[in-house]
Amino acid sequence: MLRRACSLSLCLSLWMVAGQTAEPETPGMQAYNAIQALRQQSNKLIGDGHDPQAICKAVGYLDEAIGMLDRADVDELGNGNIYLKYRRWDVEMDLAQAYAALGDNDAALKHIEAAVRFHSISYSVADLIKGRPGLAALQSDPRFQRVMQDQRAIEQIWKHSTIATAYTDTLTPEQRVAGLSLFWSEGNFNFVYFDHITDVDWDKAYLQFVPQVLAAQTTHDYYDVMMRFAPLLRDGHTNIYPPEKIASQFLARPPIETALVDDRVLVLEVASPTVAKLGVHAGDEIVSIDAQPVRDYAQARVRPYVSSGTPQDADVRTYSYQLLSGDESRPVVLTLRDGRANEHTATVDRRSYADTHWTERPFYRDLGRGVAYVNVDEFNDDHVDAQFEKAWPRIRAAKALVIDARDNGGGSSQYGLTILTYLTNLPINTLLSKQRQYRPVSRAHGSASIEWQALDHRPFPNDRKDVFTGKVVVLIGPKTFSAGEDFVAALQLMRRGKLIGERTGGGTGQPLTFELPGGGTARICAKRDEYPDGHTFVGSGIAPDIEVKATVADVRAKRDPALARAMAEVLR
User: Domains of the chain, with CATH numbers?
Assistant: First the structure.
């Protein structure tokens, strides 16, 4: 095996040859990019795997990368940079493929075993190995089969396939308790905001729910209990969802948008003419549901199922997202009061309506007087980025820009960060992220602390030269959540514009998703996000610079006071 002297300067020169930027942002990323450059060089040499001399040279580059990863300083950098840390897996597997191409199965298997020793914490390792081209010839080897068998055993530790069964109408008492225990355990070891709920005794809550799940005779009843357990952690990224086969027994709702406005529950939109014919109209106040005063109904029938960490987010989920949800087979009876104080009752089916059509909110609008408006209402995919790029010539020509993020419930933060690159020619600073680190030996020695591992933090890259330099205002509200809030927080760090509206929902992070008995799923918030100075908006929300709240009169008159205030601000 060829061993080369590991020179960081040599690696960096290879990195530049590979077409990357010549100025890494941190030592960890410097080492990461150098190793990636060595991998790129080796992959070019390996090609189709038919040139033994080229493959031997590729092995030399990969061997050099291993030598670099073995250095004490690089190893230490890897502890704070997950991207660098997991390059060992890649390099070891690259070497396994190279040796397999050379027909040296023994060396290939040694590198697979080395990769597994490093990466055995992942239950997806077996799939990663199988997905590697060039290892097919090894699959009949007993050593290879043993590695795969060991990884499948590790998979059982995390996937819990014996517990996470497919849907059945009923579950055994053992399955019911196991599902509750699994959620309790995942929360106990992975939830990152226990310091936000110091009044919650998680063990006591678990014990209180054991008899409840034992009493649940059907899978429907079981999930009715479980969906009230998750909200005890008071976090919007921590939830339990029913199996798909019975989801319509919990989550069906008519095409009516509602909201809490001035402590009154209003209809904002009716998206079906069929429902409108029943006497339900935008601007109506919902006085009662199923003959129960609406606030009492919400507190008794909705709020126990709401996972939320702030009052404003709880109100959104209770009075907007979940208020009319329920069993598809049971209509909802609404008592409504119109703007003239006339009351009437409407019985509305919870089902899909063929004539449902929600009002389209355009992405771009010209507000006049040189003010452009864009509606960034989600970050689920690159659709918003593509819309921004399409509208860019008009945005660039404007004197001021209003960005409406009031309906942005999240998605992937990178889409929001991409939009922010149009507002500056500097890299975009982001929140700092942490995950819990469990050390059982430390616990055995008496340590009772929660240790935090910082995830790699680096500014979002930005090489855009043509940027918007005019005034910027961002509209926010309690529906601004998760990646929507990451977007707002990054804009705050840029000091690029004012925030107008209401406090955001107050919840971000990375949910850990897993399966439960009977086909349900669960999430636990496993990533903690903070501003660089250590404070967080999780549990409180991001406050606007200028607070503006809509009134009942505004809703009925179809006025948008936040947008009007934004116009006044950018035209000052």
Answer: 8-159 (1.25.40), 256-348 (2.30.42.10), 364-570 (3.90.226.10)
